[in-house]
Write a structure and sequence with these properties.
Layout: H1 17-23, H2 25-34, H3 47-63, H4 69-85, H5 89-93, H6 101-112, E1 121-126, H7 129-132, E2 161-162, E3 166-176, E4 184-195, E5 198-204, E6 207-211, E7 214-218, H8 223-243, H9 251-254, E8 257-262, H10 265-272, E9 282-283, E10 290-293, H11 300-318, H12 326-337, H13 344-356, H14 371-374, H15 377-395, H16 397-408, H17 413-421, H18 425-435
Parallel strand pairs: 7-8, 8-10
Antiparallel strand pairs: 1-3, 2-3, 3-4, 4-5, 6-7, 9-10
Helix pairs in contact: 1-2, 2-3, 8-11, 11-12, 12-15, 13-15, 15-16, 16-17
Bound molecules: zinc ion.
Length: 447
């Protein structure tokens, strides 16, 4: 028998199940529910059974159908499986709690990927108590058998904890991408919330740490890294906000910034979407948390370049909702981070070398994060950074911000460049390339 989750029935949490099936109305409800019986007493029911049934009905009102919720949550997981395997992103989102707008936006984009890539296999099951004790942190594991039954076969305590309209359970997700040789596996503790139409998936159960305008969400074992984020981000925010000319009273500067930190690459990747397999250290997209891959010994200083880069994305998205070219997004994020990490001089040197070796591709080829641009993955950050620095030096930060804002609000690269900087982008590009000194003539200091 499972653990009782209602305070009124706290005695049920220990002792042999058969005994409490006789003495605990809550369990009577469970047994009846599982067998599809009706709770109302039958006319020939013995008197003590009738009393128990009445008590059951009373406790149902007081406690809610707590134990009966486990099969409902298992049904939710099966519904999620069906939606994912059908590539039905709308059906999936109907099963997701939308209370937290940041989480729901992340889930919206997670589901969006199902329009393009549907896994060939996908399973989502509750890990039983014996497995839950092994390791609660997400990990890569073998392709384990898991029954997903509503009956706990382990005889241990029920890993599903059910509260007042909320629940949590350790779950395991196993999925195989098209053309992949092996399945991927991830484990975490999931939260659920009872909505009007039934239980909904409400994301991961996180530990929380707050500092000035920052909310860090993290797994057990990453307390040190969470503290490092909480310490590093407030001053980084101020620096980046100044670079984008957002005042201290602006909506951006006064908003709580969520940061989710991940201890494994696969955990971070799978939070973005199922088919995301590229190596990554940080992530931010409009309306989503900043996501970071961290180690247990991560320090505040070591995090600042990455945080400044990701918060540079947050600030860019604050300028408007239109999508601007990939190299600009990464270039201005790198410019935001240069005070903390890679020096301008070092990047200048790299760009001079690329020019000398014919590796400065047309910006047009780095406009979208697609297969064409992937071959320039090593260039897009540095080349974008250099061009953004060139624009800053030549036109000033106010015009740089105005040029970004124009594009974020829908202007094309050509129009924004002509209207804000006063020349065509083709001319700007040519003049930028001409401004890069030849490698052998380059000074030690930046240009
Ligand atoms: Zn970036």
């Amino acid at each position: 028998m499972g653990r009782a989750t209602c305070a009124v029935c706290a005695a049920c949490s220990s002792g042999p199940g058969y005994l409490f099936a006789m003495t605990c109305a809550q369990h009577l409800i469970v047994e009846n529910t599982r067998q599809g019986s009706v709770l109302s007493p039958r006319p020939n029911l013995p008197a003590h059974r009738a009393v128990l049934a009445s008590l059951a009905a009373l406790l149902l009102v007081v406690c809610g159908p707590a134990r009966a919720s486990r099969p409902e949550i298992e049904q939710l997981l099966r519904d999620i499986q069906v939606a994912v395997l059908a590539g039905d992103h709308e059906a999936y989102l109907r099963l997701v709690d939308n209370t937290d707008p940041v989480f729901f936006q992340e889930q919206r984009m997670w589901a969006e990927d199902l329009k393009k890539i549907v896994p060939t296999d996908f399973r989502l099951v509750i890990r039983e108590a014996s497995g839950a004790a092994e390791n609660d942190s997400p990990e890569e594991a073998g392709d384990k058998e898991s029954g997903g039954s509503s009956e706990s076969a382990t005889g241990g305590h029920d890993p599903v904890k059910i509260g007042d309209g909320t629940a949590e359970a350790p779950i395991e997700m196993v999925w195989t991408l098209p053309k992949a040789e092996k399945p991927r596996t991830l484990r975490w503790t999931a939260k659920f919330r009872r909505g009007d139409q039934g239980w909904l998936y409400a994301g991961e159960k996180w530990n929380k740490l707050e500092s000035e305008g920052v909310l860090v969400l993290f797994d057990d074992g990453l307390e040190g890294a969470a503290k490092a984020v909480a310490e590093a981000l407030p001053p980084v925010r101020k620096h980046v906000e100044q670079g984008f000319e957002f005042g201290p009273d602006s909506p951006l500067a006064t908003r709580v910034q969520q940061v989710k930190i991940y201890g494994s690459m696969q955990h971070l990747q799978a939070s973005i979407y199922l088919s995301y397999t590229d190596g990554i250290a940080g992530w931010n997209e409009p309306g989503e948390a900043i996501k970071l891959l961290v180690g247990r010994r991560t320090t505040a200083d070591s995090l600042k370049p990455l945080l400044a880069h990701e918060y540079g994305h947050v600030a860019t998205f604050e300028l408007g909702t239109a999508r601007m070219p990939w190299w600009i997004l990464e270039g201005v994020a790198e410019l935001s981070a240069e005070a903390y990490g890679k020096s301008r001089e070092q990047n200048d040197k790299t760009v001079r070398h690329w020019k000398a070796t014919g590796k400065l591709p047309p910006f047009e080829e780095m406009a979208e994060f697609d297969d064409r641009a992937k071959k320039w993955y090593g260039q897009v950050y540095g080349q974008g950074h250099h061009m953004l620095g060139y624009i800053s030096d030549r036109f000033g930060s106010a015009k740089r911000v105005a040029w970004l804002r124009a594009q974020a609000q829908g202007a094309s690269l050509d129009d924004a460049t002509m209207n804000v900087l006063g020349l065509s982008f083709a001319d700007l590009d040519k003049q930028w390339r001409d401004s890069i000194p030849d490698e052998e003539k380059a000074p030690q200091q930046g240009t």
